[in-house]
Amino acid sequence: EVQVVESGGGLVQAGGSLRLSCAASGFTAADYAIGWFRQAPGKEREGVSCISKSDGTIYYADSVQGRFTLSSDNAKNTAYLQMNNLKPEDTAVYYCAAAQYVGSSYLYCSGYGPHHISWGQGTQVTVSS
Fold this sequence. Notes:
Layout: E1 3-7, E2 10-13, E3 18-25, E4 32-39, E5 46-52, E6 57-60, E7 68-73, E8 78-83, E9 92-100, H1 105-109, E10 118-119, E11 123-128
Parallel strand pairs: 2-11
Antiparallel strand pairs: 1-3, 3-8, 4-5, 4-9, 5-6, 7-8, 9-10, 9-11
C-alpha cells in the first residue's frame, strides 16, 4: 500500500515563499504519480501541481504557473512543491496524493487518476495580506 507523509506549510505574508514536501513509499512499480491538491473553505478541491513518472510530465494549474515549482527526488520518492510569490488566494489546506499510475500529469491533477490514491493528512498554508 502506498503511503504519503507531508511536511511544510505554515503562515507567510503575501509575496513570501514556502516549501512543501511529500515522501511516498510502498510503490511496487516504476510508474507512479505524486500530486499536490488544495482545498480552501467553501471551495472545491483543485489540483495544483502533479508529476507523472510514466510520461515524465509535470502539470501546473494556471493559478500557480510561474510561481510554484514541483521537483522530485527519485531516490527518495519525494516530491517538493516550492511556492514563491504567495498570494492570499493560495490560502488552503494542501494535500499530497500518490498512486501507481500510468498516464499524464494533467489527467492525474484533473481528478482522472486511478481508483486507489493515497492521500496525506493535509497541511495548512495561510498567506496574509
